[in-house]
User: Fold this.
Amino acid sequence: DVVMTQSPLSLSVTLGQPASISCRSSQGLVFGDGDTYLHWFQQRPGQSPRRLIYKVSNRDSGVPDRFSGSGSGTDFTLKISRVEAEDVGIYYCVQDTGWPWTFGQGTKVEIK
Amino acid sequence: EVQLVESGGGLVQPGGSLRLSCVASGFISTDVWMGWVRQAPGKGLEWVAISRRGGSDKRYVDSVKGRFTISRDPAKNSLSLQMNNLRAEDTAVYYCASDRGEVWGQGTLVTVSS
Assistant:
């Protein structure tokens, strides 16, 4: 199975400041079609997960442009350019290049 | 905009069975993966089972193989998860999700306890 490792597991950020979450996979995530199936999800307290970024760097509809994704190979990053109060929650990376699709452990983001 | 609504969760004894259902409000292509993700209390997310092509292509995580069965009815825009021989470690909120997580349901809680 592909193991997804996130860091840090907890992040305390001042409002308006940037935040960055790293995700590393135990294997490369390029699929046979040439795409990299690495996505980022946000789970606010008490809510269902919501996809923010798909295939490394594509923002889902309605996602603020302060969220961005980057990376390649086995190293990926989610960045929030200016953290807002509504960004509090747990962020997960996930790979669905190969089954079983696997999530990272999650990174808890809170406001300092 | 597609919405997913799950039902069927509840309290069941170890060794018992439960069937979860998920109905989509809009059209979802049979070429799109749909599946179930679970989240144990206070824990992270885990894909449990997925289905595509009207149900002919199915995958299961090792911990549920032989116990869970995913099925899909394209005509009814629905997805089901039959869970047999349930164990305490299956206790979780189960989410229905489509298209590699683009759309999620609200989740349904399954509690396995005597």
About this structure: The mean pLDDT of chain A is 97. Chain A touches chain B through 21 residues (CB under 8 Å). The two ends of chain A are 36 Å apart (CA to CA). The longest strand of chain A covers residues 19-25.
